[in-house]
Specification:
Blueprint: E1 3-9, H1 15-26, E2 35-42, H2 45-48, H3 51-58, E3 63-67, E4 71-73, E5 82-89, E6 92-98, H4 109-122, E7 128-133, H5 141-152, E8 157-161, E9 174-176, E10 179-181, E11 186-192, E12 197-202, E13 208-219, E14 222-226, E15 229-230, H6 231-237, E16 256-259, E17 267-269, E18 271-274, E19 280-282, E20 291-295, H7 299-319, E21 325-330, H8 331-335, H9 343-352, E22 359-364, E23 367-373, E24 376-382, E25 385-390
Parallel strand pairs: 2-3, 7-8, 21-22
Antiparallel strand pairs: 1-5, 2-5, 3-9, 4-22, 6-11, 7-11, 8-23, 9-10, 12-25, 13-14, 13-20, 14-15, 14-19, 16-17, 16-20, 18-19, 21-25, 23-24
Helix pairs in contact: 1-3, 4-5, 7-9
Length: 391
């Protein structure tokens, strides 16, 4: 069984004050069991002010996480919070890992090596992973998912791709024991008496523009050419590129809808930035020959799909006496709320605060979560989704 304790602070500038506030909320003395793990989400400025490092130094267990645009636990207010969850158990145990720098989709050996080393320390096959992946211009969530699948033999992988509050997400970082990394993947292997359940809500790709194109060149998560021209030309025609040649700041709310033309359901992908060559840096891969269109996220759809999913997860948690919900929502869902950016969060807290189930919500640059395919859990990289792991 896992117990979870959550805390938050809005104190960005004074590290000692922030840590004192967090520790007072946690009240960990006498509450920690044999094995513990910390999960942290924060605005990027908590790194520069020293709060992240001071917090990790003050806790007697590993702490992993990422920067984000906004994160919440019960009682948190506003997007500038640092949020922390402590998982602790006598019969569930954790081994953490951190890769060396990952610099290309062609060489993901650092990820495989870090996974192999962590599993060797664990001494058994884990029940699942909690992952915090870096946001890279040349490696997408599909590459991360496929590599860990190959190393683990398909162990369920649940997690997020880091983002931050800047327009180009240039300050997105993964976090590991107080240190921040632009190119490293942080994770925890979880084993023992634990049976996680996973929930996914995505937006139906029914709000799709009429203009379509064919992917004629791509490399990993770089959408390079549509109809033989740089991808940014296609987006220019749709009014999604600024005068200085950058993607529209709210591009996350205009996801790509990809039809692989193989009778499988279309998938949704978001763009984060553009390269000098006019390529779109996205949250997943784009097979050459697939058909591409641009959709639109609707705020009401976000709130409705999230509310339905959270109710389902809370009901399942109550049935199994689950102790914690870890949740990631795509940053595009947050941005589509416009002048009410916390509307999705308000719906979530309105449901969960009444249940007493502790929870942690972080906004994400890509969602890693298994889905049940033909009765088997299969790991997938998602965009514009809301994912939940019930423990």
């Amino acid at each position: 069984m896992i117990k979870a304790f959550t805390a938050f602070t809005n104190e960005i500038d004074e590290a000692d004050a922030a840590v004192s506030e967090l520790l007072a909320q946690l009240n960990l003395e006498g509450r920690l069991l044999r094995h513990s793990l910390g999960l942290v989400s924060c605005y990027a400025e908590y790194i520069d002010s020293g709060v992240v490092k001071a917090l990790s130094d003050a806790l007697p267990f590993d702490v992993i996480g990422s920067t984000t645009l906004a994160s919440y636990v019960k009682g948190a207010s506003g997007p500038l919070s640092l949020t922390l969850t402590v998982l602790t158990s006598d019969d569930v145990y954790f081994v953490t890992g951190l890769t060396e720098d990952i610099t290309s989709a062609e060489d993901l050996s650092p990820l495989r090596a870090a996974y192999d080393a962590a599993q060797a320390r664990l001494g058994e096959r884990p029940k699942f992973l909690i992952s915090f992946a870096p946001l890279l211009i040349n490696v997408g969530g599909d590459s991360f998912t496929e590599t860990i699948d190959g190393a683990s033999g398909g162990v369920p992988n649940f997690g997020t791709v880091a983002v931050d509050h800047t327009e180009d997400y240039s300050q997105a970082r993964t976090l590991y024991n107080g240190e921040a990394h632009a190119l490293k993947y942080a994770f925890a292997l979880v084993a023992g008496n634990v049976a996680p359940r996973f929930f996914v809500a995505t937006l139906p790709p029914d709000k799709v523009g009429r203009e379509k194109g064919i992917v004629t060149a791509s490399a990993g998560n770089q959408l390079r050419e549509i109809d033989g021209a740089p991808a940014i030309r296609f987006l220019e025609r749709l009014g999604l590129v600024t005068k200085d040649g950058n993607l529209f700041a709210g591009m996350n709310t205009f996801p790509f809808v990809i039809d692989f033309n193989d009778n499988s359901p279309p998938v949704v992908r978001v763009a984060f930035s553009a390269t000098p060559e006019g390529y779109a840096v996205c949250g997943g891969n784009f097979p050459v020959g697939s058909t591409i269109a641009v959709g639109r996220i609707d705020a009401d759809d976000v709130v409705n799909t999230t509310s339905d999913l959270v109710r389902a997860a809370a009901a399942a948690a109550a049935e199994q006496n689950s102790g914690f919900l870890l949740m990631f929502s795509c940053v595009g869902r947050y941005l589509c709320m416009g002048y009410e950016p916390e509307r999705e969060w308000a719906a979530v807290s309105g449901i969960l605060d009444e249940t007493g189930i502790p929870y942690h919500l972080t906004y994400s640059g890509g969602e890693l979560c298994p889905t049940e395919d033909f009765g088997k859990l299969t790991n997938h990289n998602h965009n514009d989704t809301y994912i939940i792991c019930a423990l």
